[in-house]
Amino acid sequence: MKTISTFSLLLLTTTFLFAQQNGSYTKNDKLLNIGIGVNSFYDGGIPFGASYEQGITSTISVGVNADYLSNDYLSFKFTAIYLGVRASYHFNDLLKIENNKIDLYGGPTLGYRNFSWKDTKQNLGDDYGSGLFLGAYVGGKYYLSQKISLFTELGAIGSTNARIGVAFKF
């Protein structure tokens, strides 16, 4: 929790330092999000995730996402890996948001979840829970510059339902 609080404070401070420049979403943008989950669907561990999207219209981007979570507790270990595709609708035009530092978006995600666990003390293990997953999310970015933003995403986005991080536009 201390790590998440420190990371959040760093993100907030950086926001105010760079808030003078513009960004927002446009067609043909290449977007890379890198973040951590602020909670987990599983017991323990910090979920790490990334997504990459390409803008195909002025309001729609498509891409891929990956999520990783692993935790050890005594003799018990689990790992969850999510790989999938996603699409985002960028709501700024629809909501008539004219602030080009803000990008509000949301959409579906579809992919494969590999979940495995092992208990070395009792020599047990399984991949129960692996399979296809379907999710939906909403998110927002605040651009610190034309190429860097801070983001938050909420919804079924891998092994967490809330993620914060840094995004890069190419």
TrEMBL record:
Alphabetical list of SUPFAM superfamilies matching this protein: OMPA-like
Signal peptide: 1-19
InterPro entries per the UniProt record, alphabetical: OMP/PagP_B-barrel
Signal keyword on record: yes
Record keywords: Signal
Source species, domain of life: Bacteria
Protein's name according to its UniProt entry: Outer membrane protein beta-barrel domain-containing protein
